[in-house]
Amino acid sequence: MRELLGIMARLRAVDGCPWDREQTFASIAPYTIEEAYEVADAAERGDLRHLKDELGDLLFQVVFHAQMASETGQFDFDAVAGAICDKLLRRHPHVFGASGPLTPAEQSAAWEDIKAAERGAAADAEHSHLDGVPQALPALMRAFKLSKRAARVGFDFEHASQTADKVAEELAEVRDAAAQHALSGDSRGPPGASAHIFEEIGDLLFAAANLARKLDVDAEAALRAANAKFERRFRGMESLAARRGEVFAELNLESQERLWQEVKRGE
Predict the structure, then answer these.
(1) Which residues, other chains included, contact 220 with Cβ-Cβ below 8 Å and sequence gap of 6+?
(2) CA-CA distance, 129 to 132, in Å (whole number)?
(3) Domain 2-91: CATH class, spelled out
(4) pTM to 2 decimals?
């Protein structure tokens, strides 16, 4: 760790790396996000060799931010490490305090309660229960977290079936908006779209994320799995068509659908 901190300081020195020297918190942030996703990808694939490498890349991002902050006297890496140590101790009273053992579900609830108390202690008159949900999160993940925050203060359906009904309601509104758009012949905006359709699609996606939360499903992970399944099956269709001497892109939709069902049955 000391060696890594030394390398980072050297890179940012006056006679260091020109590229590293010109970076800012804002310019480095996209790389930080990218490295976090690469960690998640390696973990999901169970690729421990690459996970080690990706964790190192992510750690470098933490060190990079800390070095830039230390140059302006804001904080350094020791302060970052100290802050997370303090937070972990504070949020695990059942481990480091006298509250006694908890089940995983009880610990999850206690963690959220402690976080809420921390937000409340730091709040001013304009405090909202939605404060602290980062704007930069992927939209689906942020929808999940926003609805979870709202649910903590009672703004939630009682049953998952009611949440599913809301999804159906939003889907019906998308259908209505699309039908109105087709009848009006409105050509504004992207081809085939309108501001009304755009809004209703957003409402549908938010409702779907809320349903996932209600059913205790990680919406972001579920969509990643669906993406992977679609990619696997689509590639399977292309391969199957090629083995039969067919050009997939030249097949009509009915023929492509038959390939899809064939690949699906073979899984």
Answers:
(1) 138, 140, 141, 144
(2) 8
(3) mainly alpha
(4) 0.65
